[in-house]
Amino acid sequence: MVESQNFASARFMTVAEVADVMRVSKMTVYRLVHSGDLPAVRFGRSYRVPENAVQEYLRAAGFGRDFNTG
User: Fold this and answer.
1) In angstroms, what CA-CA distances link 3 with 6, 7, 39?
2) Where in this chain does the record put each Helix-turn-helix domain (predicted)?
């Protein structure tokens, strides 16, 4: 059984936004998503990446500080 979560406060980023924050190309973000290194949700033909997943990925990569996406 799936635990109840509050998705109303979840923030999602586009692939372009993730690429901008990480200072990489959109193709690099797509590779991370397809390899499973960066979780994402598919909406139609596009992907959305949870903001906290990007923060966690960067933290695990050794970038401990938070960032501002807006």
Assistant:
1) 10, 12, 18
2) 12-60
Q: What SS3 class is residue 55?
A: helix
- For 13-27, what is each residue's pLDDT tens digit? 999 999 999 999 999
Give yes or no for a contact between 32 and 38, defined as CB atoms under 8 angstroms apart.
yes
Give Dmax (Cα) for the chain. Answer: 38
| Distant-in-sequence, close-in-space partners of 31: CB < 8 Å, separation ≥ 6 | none
Residue 1 pLDDT: 43
Neighbours of 13 (CB within 10 A): 20
| Whole-prediction pTM | 0.77
Question: d(Cα 57, Cα 69) in Å, to the nearest integer?
Answer: 15
